[in-house]
Design a protein that fits this description.
Length: 188
């Protein structure tokens, strides 16, 4: 259902935007790498292929997770919550919820890449991340409460669960970066 004559047209534009975003993500991340690369040493530039593959894979995995898991669960909960009422969902609201979930989770799944660069620049360590696990989980739930498109706890948990798992993976990423650096320092 739509209430405004422009809503169907906007729907096609927004869906095309999301499809284009996910399709163009390899090129966009490559351009991001080209922006970052001049500031790196030659040995650090060898990370270009793993960077591109992992950022694209994580972004698409986040979008897919949102599409297959979070979005259907959100709709089931929200529509099921108001069973006494007749739902009349407009295209604009449906698309807004869809875009928020898909793009939001695509960006959230980039957390290990962010941690990799922060660990590479010696801003954080795996030990620091482990020591601050409780505070990080609290911060994750606060962020999940802010970015979730609805106000219910189920959707907040659906956003927070992959963030907690990605935080655990990020601890492993930081540990790998720190241990590799330590081995190189010990070898010299």
């Amino acid at each position: 259902m739509y209430l405004n004559p422009t809503e169907p047209f906007n729907l096609y534009l927004e869906v095309g935007f999301v499809a284009g975003l996910f399709t163009a993500s390899p090129f966009v991340f490559y351009q991001l790498w080209l922006f970052i690369a001049p500031g790196l040493y030659r040995k650090e530039k060898r990370y270009v292929l793993p960077f591109l593959l992992s950022t694209v894979a994580l972004f698409i995995a986040g979008g897919f997770f949102g599409y297959k898991m979070v979005y259907p669960a959100s709709l089931d909960f929200l529509i099921g919550y108001g069973l006494r009422f007749q739902p009349m969902i407009t295209i604009a609201e449906y698309t807004k919820l869809f875009l928020t979930i898909i793009i939001g989770l695509g960006l959230i799944f980039e957390m290990p890449i962010l941690v990799f660069f922060l660990a590479l620049m010696r801003v954080i360590t795996a030990r620091w991340m482990w020591r601050n696990l409780r505070y990080s989980i609290l911060a994750i739930f606060v962020v999940a409460a802010i970015v979730t498109p609805t106000t219910d706890i189920l959707n907040m948990c659906l956003f927070a669960a992959p963030m907690v798992a990605l935080y655990a993976i990020s601890i492993g990423v930081a540990w790998l970066v720190n241990s590799t650096r330590k081995r190189r320092t010990d070898a010299v």
